[in-house]
């Protein structure tokens, strides 16, 4: 009798991560990556700017040792004038300082089921810093980019093997993105010299894009006339359904929010312990692709989105976790919401409550159309129906007072799981939007 052995068809494409996604416990290799790279402690959300030591770090290969005197940045390719610049020369050029939120594209990977094998981020792979340096557009203007250019390729000094391919870390940007005025070649972080783990002596910072675009330890910039197909561009950092799917490239940061953990933590589980009763939750929300509402009260924003999805209120202009509006990274204010810890799981951002409110508003609108009020304002000459009442603004809705909390029994303590506070970010249809 012949025994037939069926094997899973192997993908011919190089793969960014070894092995198949798994439902199993963390592997030794993942733990080693977790020890080498680190996330931002959630309590750092209290600060508008993340200190360098608390900002998330992801290093693909080794941190290169670079000396000031020997390092030069080379700019070439499809330009009329190739350049080679020392760090001292770059510091003589015009400089800008830009507050930017960077988030790892793999943030939340450890929560996926099954889980791809790589850096096992939970949700804290993020940070905000003020980056100072030369606008990339300024240097490209000096080099005079040729009309045929389609992309700009950025190559770092870090080198290693991934997916069986030896390469320097390199990424490209479309020429239009590279010429944005806020894309910066940074040599300072929060006013001080760039730390080694964050890309010393020079790194690219691309506001609004996931962190993989902001190449560290930058050593060359090449303007090219055809799309770049390096490993980190064509194989890694793509949204895929399976190993054989070529996928779509990762680019701008999707909507996400995190809360400052209230109370005090348990050492091992990180569950939060705090008294029963009203608790003020504070946090941040950010994105690389949308304008943002001033989040004075998360419940009110959810109601505003259900009532009038078109409402847009710009964020205040102050340092903080950045959000992109019209392609430019701006600032997200603190999110403040008075919630009762006893009702946290069914608070205003709860999916059922939001859907119920949306259905109720649809019913009100339909009833108003079928049964207009007698005192509705008469239409102006040439108009065919009564004027609609102006939509309530998100800020007006947010001014509503929080629901009263029940009085807790004396001496009782409530244990709050941090995961409950960020569950909103895990539901596509319940995220805070604008």
Attribute tags:
disordered N terminus; 20 strands; 434 residues; five-stranded mixed beta sheet; 2 domains; alpha+beta; Sulfite Oxidase, Chain A, domain 2
What does this structure look like?
This protein has 434 residues and is of the alpha+beta class. The chain has 2 domains: 28-239, Sulfite Oxidase, Chain A, domain 2, CATH 3.90.420; 256-368 and 390-426, no CATH class. The protein is built from 9 helices and 20 strands. It has helices spanning 28-36, 87-90, 136-143, 175-178, 231-234, 298-307, 351-370, 394-398, 418-421; strands at 73-77, 83-85, 96-103, 126-135, 151-162, 165-174, 184-189, 192-193, 203-205, 218-224, 238-239, 248-249, 256-259, 264-265, 272-275, 278-286, 322-325, 328-331, 335-340, 413-416. Strands 2-1-10-5-6 form a 5-stranded mixed β-sheet. Strands 3, 4, 7, 8 and 9 form a 5-stranded antiparallel β-sheet that branches. It has a 3-stranded antiparallel β-sheet with strand order 13-16-19, with no helix packed on it. A hairpin with an 8-residue loop joins strand 11 and strand 12 (248-249). Helix 6 (298-307) runs parallel beside helix 7. The protein is globular, with a radius of gyration of 25 Å. The chain starts with 27 loop residues before the first helix and ends in a 13-residue tail after the last helix. Mean pLDDT is 73; it is low at 1-11, 291-355 and 372-434.
